Amino acid sequence: MIDIKLLVEEPERVAENNKNRGKDIDVTVAQGLQKRRLSTLEGVQRSRTRSNEVAQLIPKAAADERKALVEEGKSLKDATKELEATLAQVEVDLERELRRYPNLLREDVPIGRDETANQLMRTFGKPTAFSFEPKDHLDLGTQLGIIDMDRAAKVSGARFVYLKGDGVLLEMALLQYALQQTMKAGFTPVLPPHIISTKAMSAMGYLEHGGEEEIYHLKHDEMVLVGTSEQAIGPMHMDEILDAESLPLRYVGFSPCYRREAGTYGKDTRGILRVHQFDKVEMFSFTTPEVSDAEHEFLLSIQERLMQGLGLPHRVMKLCALDTGAPSARTYDIETWMPSQKTYRETHSTSNTTDFQTRRLNTRVKVGKKNVLAHALNGTAFAMGRTIIAILENYQQADGSVVVPEVLRPWMGKEVIHKVVEKKQ
Q1: Per-residue pLDDT tens digits for 148-164
Q2: Is residue 110 part of a domain?
Q3: Which of 57, 67, 100, 339 is deepest in the core (most CB within 10 A)?
Q4: What average pLDDT does the segment 92-99 reach?
Q5: pLDDT band for position 304 (50/70/90)?
Q6: Stretch 266-290: mean pLDDT
Q7: Does residue 425 surpass a pLDDT of 60?
Q8: What H or E segment, with its residue span, contains residue 79?
Q9: What is the mean pLDDT of residues 238-256?
Q10: Looking at the domain assignment, is residue 422 inside a domain?
């Protein structure tokens, strides 16, 4: 949620930010509600002050004056209650209005109306060249006996998968590799809850701006399934004051992710690129405002280190204004080469959400004698399904086997994943 002070003092800046993000929001609505809130609050304070004065006068007043003071006290009490009710409603209306606003973009974010305006930062490696026609990950995974979507469809419906055998070992190897690298960088591993309250999810900013339709709701319990572990890690420090000396506070979480993919009907339906349940390793940081941009670059460097270790061709993109999610002030994506599609596809994302989430979470940092809002950042270490796709497709061999990236071999216990030999009936 944005700072109302910013909206009052710099409405043109906020309006321009909304425009660049494609949000049609009339800033005068929130401004009007804020003026009404302040005037009503002033009225409440005046009424309370006078009530206290009357209460102190009554015991000392003469009999004829006391009756008038008592009547005034009753009238003031009723008026105060009415003003307090009005104030509470105005504050609810103001917060609801402010929740429509996206975060304020960093100045270096490119302005653009679609992904063609995203800025290419750098590229690692070249698209994999083959002397044969490469297969896609679903054909490879099926032949290797590690991906089974047909049986998953019988059990759970479309866009679910069973990983089996070496597919499970490959995911666990990626997890161990990610933990090894992130823990070296000072991250604390976390296994977070998969179910969180709607209050916590709302505080993270994922129940507005189109996020609502992507979430699986447990409506009888006012709970939701997380779409990424960051949604459970961010609220860990809700209503807390962090010690500045303990920052940056870095976590790396591993969890399933549940997404309805409501807005992607008919898109990427083949294979495991876009499924309703997948596993992910996610980084999350709390910092002071002064160093959050540096922390953002740090998270990106960890992502690049992980991908370079796997030897997968990829590129780093800085997203333009309209392609940047509402909670984020700046987002970088890593897109990895997918041979079967002959294009780069997003496998990683890292965002600096500044104080957009921590304002709702009420997560602050004690800096000197002041308590200021912490800044929060997130970044993918590995989205398991998409990383497995990239490994299968880029490391496939002519005979249908797949070479295991060297950094994963200590946990895989093998250098090559071979095709399953069918038993004759």
Answers
A1: 999 999 999 999 999 99
A2: no
A3: 339
A4: 93
A5: very high
A6: 90
A7: no
A8: helix 63-98
A9: 95
A10: no
Domain shared by 312 and 376, yes or no: yes
One domain for residues 40 and 169: no
Residue of 61 and 252 predicted with greater confidence: 252
Q: At 210, is the pLDDT very low, low, confident or very high (cuts 50, 70, 90)?
A: low
If one counts the domains in the chain, the total is 2
Residues 25 and 132 in one domain: no
Distance set, CA 154 to CA 148, 199, 302 (Å)? 11, 34, 39
Q: Are residues 137 and 36 part of one domain?
A: no
Is residue 424 one of the residues assigned to a domain? no
Distance CA 407, CA 310 (A): 7
Give the domain CATH number at 60: 1.10.287.40
The CA distance from 265 to 231, in Å, is 24
Are 77 and 119 part of one and the same domain?
Answer: no
68-75 own/partner pairs: CB under 8 Å, 24+ apart: none
Structure tokens at 316: 């780093």
Residues 60 and 171 in one domain: no
Of 43, 70, 98, the residue at which a domain comes to its end is 98
- Residue 133 burial (10 A CB sphere; 0-12, 13-18, 19+): exposed
DSSP string, 157-213: -SS--EE-THHHHHHHHHHHHHHHHHHHTTPEEE---SEEEHHHHHHTT-SSTT-GG
Of 98, 123, 145, which closes a domain?
98
Question: How do 330-338 and 314-318 pair as beta strands?
Answer: antiparallel
Structure tokens at 270: 């083949």
In a domain, 109, yes or no: no
Contacts for 332 with CB less than 8 Å, ≥ 6 apart? 121, 296, 300, 316, 317, 318, 319, 349, 350, 351
Q: Are 416 and 169 in contact (CB under 8 A)?
A: no
Tokens for 10, please give them: 């710099």
pLDDT tens-digit profile of 78-92?
999 999 999 999 999
Residue 211's pLDDT is 60
Q: Print the domain residue range for 161.
A: 115-417
Q: Cβ(281)–Cβ(71) under 8 Å?
A: no
408 or 61: which carries more pLDDT confidence? 408
Active centre residues (catalytic) = 259, 274, 346, 349, 386
The answer to whether the pTM exceeds 0.85 is yes
How far is C-alpha 154 from the geometric centre of its chain's CA atoms? 32
| Rounded average pLDDT over 22-31 | 94
In terms of Cα–Cα distance, which of 140, 110, 133, 30 is closest to 388? Answer: 140
Pair (85, 152) in one structural domain: no
176 with 322, same domain: the answer is: yes
